[in-house]
Write a structure and sequence with these properties.
Shape: elongated
Helix content: over 70%
CATH topology: 3 helical TM bundles of succinate and fumarate reductases
Number of strands: 0
CATH architecture: Up-down Bundle
Largest sheet: none
Number of domains: 1
Structural class: mainly alpha
Radius of gyration: 19 Å
CATH class: Mainly Alpha
């Protein structure tokens, strides 16, 4: 928990600094900003690592709370399994979203992103 907490501090404050302090700050964050960020493997891995560490850290913390306060062994086992399954599912889905993100998916010819997506295809 301590190790993942330290890593999370670096990942989260790096994320906040880049998103909120650089290049126009919070006013620059829009769909194009996210699409540009996820075009770079560095930022994909940064966000995926932040997601993995946050979910594992949070699920482990919740597991500790369940182990401390739930006295019935059967209920405790069900809750710990539910936490593990929820964390695993969110890690898988979040990872898929980050690595399969396509800003041009579903863009129509009359849409604002059409010209940008056509330039990317060429």
């Amino acid at each position: 928990m301590r190790g993942s907490g330290v890593i999370l501090i670096v990942l989260i404050f790096g994320h906040l600094f880049v998103n909120l302090m650089l290049d126009g700050g919070i006013h620059a964050i829009d769909f194009g900003f996210v699409a540009g960020k996820y075009a770079a493997p560095f930022w994909q891995w940064w966000d995926v690592l932040m997601l993995w560490f946050a979910l594992i850290h949070g699920a482990n913390g919740m597991r500790t709370i369940v182990n401390d306060y739930v006295t019935h062994a059967g209920v405790r086992k069900v809750l710990v399994w539910a936490l593990g399954l929820a964390a695993a599912l969110l890690i898988i889905l979040g990872t898929l979203v980050v690595f399969t993100f396509d800003p041009c998916n579903g863009v129509l010819e009359d849409g604002a992103m059409w010209e940008t997506c056509q330039a990317l295809v060429k």
